[in-house]
Amino acid sequence: MFVKDYMTKDPVTVTPDTPVLDAIRLLKEKGFRRLPVLKNGKLVGLVTEKDLKDAMPSKATTLSVWEMNYLLSKLTVEEVMVRNVLTIPAEAPLEEAALLMEEKKIGALPVMEGERLVGIITVTDVMKAFTEVMGLKEGGMRVTVDIPDVPGSLAQMAQAVVPSNIVSVVTAGKEGGYRRIVLRVVGEGMETVADRLRAAGEKVVDVRKG
Q1: Topology of domain 137-209, per CATH?
Q2: Residues with Cβ < 8 Å from 149, sequence gap 6 or more?
């Protein structure tokens, strides 16, 4: 799973001299929350819906409507955008993007191929990937098992799942010498997979359908 597989390709962009009002209108029309800012084809910033709204005059202002419209017509994206934007390569593993967004408390990363902007990856994109990894659309049985945190334990546990098919397997931490595994199992015998696992000596923690 790579960033390039889940990013929005060729995102809508603006230039530094784009009026703030035009950027707000563009976000509203397209349903986006942020816009990369390009100058001569090079990424120079990122502007978010919040940045743009914060630039609007307060409702408590004493300015007239004419004065507000005049000032806003002169205000450009360059004056409110975030500079020195964090980016990520298109070939980077998706989990690197997720970790970077979590650590830096940001909602999106422009995606680069060299110095060229090729996409944008958001928290929503990462959540979509997560549902795929967990196999949520596959149906079947979701089985949580604690296995000994030693070599060969996963292979041994998987043998007990047969004749059902494992379509997703995720580790979810470890404690007390055990590693928690979440499986999604489909196909023949899936209704009794927990019984087979227990018969094989596995520590089944939770079983649920769908």
Answers
A1: Alpha-Beta Plaits (3.30.70)
A2: 174, 177, 178, 179
CA distance 209 to 25: 45
Helices in 2-120 by DSSP H: which ranges? 3-6, 20-30, 49-54, 65-74, 94-104
pLDDT digits (tens, 9 = 90+) for 93-129: 999 999 999 999 999 999 999 999 999 999 999 999 9
Query: Can you read off the two tokens belonging to residue 99?
Result: 């970790």
What pTM was estimated for this model as a whole? 0.78
Output b/e per residue, 120-146; b: 16+ Cβ within 10 A: bbbeebbeebeeeebbeeeebbbbbbb
35, 27 Cβ separation under 8 angstroms:
yes
* Under 8 Å between Cβ of 165 and 185: yes
CATH of 3-130, one of 3.40.50.300, 3.40.50.620, 3.40.50.2000, 3.10.580.10: 3.10.580.10
d(CA 193, CA 58): 61
Q: What is the pLDDT of residues 12-21, one digit of tens each?
A: 999 999 998 8
- Give 44-82 pLDDT, tens digit per residue: 999 998 888 787 655 445 555 666 666 667 789 999 999
| Angstrom distance (rounded) from CA 135 to CA 207 | 15
User: Which single residue is written with the structure tokens 């090729």?
Assistant: 118
